[in-house]
Design a protein that fits this description.
The structure is a single chain. This protein has eight helices and seven strands. It has 227 residues and is an alpha/beta fold. The chain has a domain of 145 residues: P-loop containing nucleotide triphosphate hydrolases (Rossmann fold, 3-Layer(aba) Sandwich), CATH 3.40.50. Helix 1 packs across helix 8 and helix 2 packs across helix 3. The longest helix has 24 residues. It starts with a strand and ends in a 6-residue tail after the last helix. The mean pLDDT is 95. The structure holds BIS(adenosine)-5'-pentaphosphate and magnesium ion. The site of magnesium ion has 6 residues, from helix 1.
Length: 227
């Protein structure tokens, strides 16, 4: 049995940062619904235009569409030995779909809550810069690239800011999180599948704690193996 690692937390908590480290070091694919929809939104189609609008407003994309995209992506070959969900589920309907999917795929769910206090989230999001080539995540306050405005691995690429990383949209995103997503923490906690990490620690300290939790789960169920 393989594992579905669910990264949970508010906008800017560090879900993507930790999911990318897990992908790099453990080999499980990082499936970020936010990244996938930002990619789909680049096309010149009515659907892409809708997604661009919803994402840049900081609202949630419809459950039907998100569920379809996640179902298709997680049934690909590279997910056979487990995968990391970054930014999914975000609603009760999405969580219900994931339960079914886990049964269908013979996987177990382990949720990680990256806990960061509200006051820090605006600095984390407003300071974020991303490489348009590899998706590496930087921050002008906390994780500066070696050369200002340029990715360490892609010197030809100017780092970009996300359209939804501005104060007004950040407030909308935090509102969506409070109303629709935060209640899911209790759902996973009650079913003893949630582990909280202190998201204000250093990146590597958080990573170590996540790895230790997953290793412990793996030992108990004999489910996670390094690929
Ligand atoms: P999405 O892309 O998922 O955005 P989000 O949930 O708002 O989360 P973020 O990506 O902003 O934050 P993160 O937790 O990944 O933080 P990061 O690691 O980058 O979704 C965007 C939109 O897509 C949604 O608003 C919605 O429209 C749509 N969408 C996506 N999924 C959907 C779904 N399931 N249903 C419906 N709609 C959906 O870190 C943030 C910054 O902090 C970085 O600069 C980083 O360098 C820094 N940082 C990270 N960790 C640390 C640390 N420990 N110390 C110091 N700095 C740190
Ligand atoms: Mg992210």
């Amino acid at each position: 049995m393989s594992q579905i690692v669910v990264m949970m937390g508010a906008p800017g908590a560090g879900k993507g940062t930790q999911a990318r480290l897990l992908q790099e070091r453990r080999g499980w694919p990082q499936i970020s619904t936010g990244d996938m929809f930002r990619e789909i939104a680049k096309a010149e189609t009515p659907l892409a235009e809708d997604i661009r609008r919803v994402q840049s407003e900081g609202k949630l994309i419809s459950d039907d569409l998100v569920i379809r995209v996640v179902h298709e992506r997680t049934n690909r070959e590279d997910c056979r030995h487990g995968y990391i969900l970054d930014g999914f589920p975000r609603t009760t309907a999405q969580a219900a779909m994931l339960e079914k999917l886990a049964v269908e795929q013979g996987n177990k769910i382990a949720a990680i809550f990256v806990d960061v206090p509200f006051e820090l989230l605006e600095k984390r999001t407003s300071g974020r810069m991303t490489c348009p080539v590899c998706g590496e995540i930087y921050n002008v306050y906390f994780k500066r690239p070696q050369k200002e405005g340029v990715c360490d691995k892609h010197l030809e690429a100017q780092l970009v800011k996300r359209a939804d990383d501005v104060p007004e949209k950040i407030r909308t995103r935090l509102g969506e999180y409070e109303n629709s997503t935060r209640p899911l923490l209790n759902y996973y906690k009650e079913s003893k599948r949630l582990h909280r990490v202190d998201g204000t620690s250093e990146l590597e300290a958080i990573y170590k704690e996540i790895e230790a939790f997953l290793a412990d789960k793996s030992e108990r169920s004999g489910s996670l193996s390094k690929q």
